[in-house]
Amino acid sequence: MKIKISSLVLLIVTLYGVNYFIFERIFFFNEVLSLIGFIFFIKYSFTQRGIFLIPRSGVYRDVLALIFLGLVYAAISIPLKTNWYYYFRGLSIVYSMFSFFIGYQLYENQFSFFNKIRKTIYGYALLAFGLRWGGLIDRNAYSFWFALLQKNWRLAGLFIFTLIMAFYFLSFTSATVVLVLAVIVAALIIRSYAYFKLFALTFFLGFVLLFAAAVPYLKYYKTNTTLFFGDVVSVYNKHPYFNLDHNTSWRFIFWYRTVVEPFPQNLAGIGLGTPLLPYLPNQTTTDLNYPDEYIAHVIGTHNTFITLFVRFGIASTLLFALIYRSVFREFFIYKKYYRSHKNDFSLFMAFFALTGVGLFNLLLETPTLASLYWVSLGFVAQAIYIRKNQNA
Description:
By secondary structure, the chain is mainly α. It is built from 19 helices and no strands.
């Protein structure tokens, strides 16, 4: 039986997303997908006469600009790097972006493929939840698959999604679940782009005010600067709210140290293969059981967009702002259209779910999830492009 190349590539995407413990850490599927995406880019970008063509897609062009920015920083970082190992660990941020072209080019193929595997994914995920073993399915990718494979995103779909999220939260006590669910619910209930902009502005200003109120307490990490993350316990003990969720409080400290403290010098970015925070050579001062030098180079800020800001500067943030403006504007203005095209609607929901994961976790900077994000964005970009051509 002849296997279609598109089905084989989508199978690799599926296996990579479902269990990175095997398919990324052993078989390097992120790198495989990045290479395939690069081949797709070359194949579909050049005509037989060698003319370079760029689709009239705003998201596509913004991703190209982001790739170009990453390549520039990759070149600049060579003399700045600590060593080649840390440099190539960081380089995955750049080459993973090529996976975008898989989603963009296989948009039509993925409908039939994911319809065929829907029940298999559901059964596998339910087995993972039933055994309460996160090794069967990546805890940060499960929301993507359930969002992608929903047939009905009205009350029934939301109810099923909420039950799964609640089960996961009770089993693994992950605050990310709450955030992902909030992103999905907001996307479902907000009725227009104007209301979305108001919601986004309110949320952003609320977060800025909350963070500003926390800053005087976050500075107490300096009471012991010999620790890699600083004296986080001292921060926790300065106010009862910081003891409610240490994971969130720790992230606040990390964001303060990487975004606020070095401002405005950090607007240019620190490049690849360089430490996020100062470290003590040959020391291990955290409970992560790794040397400070290793952690300083491979860890992200646990907000993937802040990590890219730290690495590539304000230019990366502006490009992501353009990408998300295009996606959100399209989704909320033409929500009725996407409601009637349920497969497209699920593509947006899956991308929003991954975005929610990235707000509190590593995503674009880790080979275990990066290609899943870029393939998902490729699906969405092509859906937008087709809708525009239909209504032109």
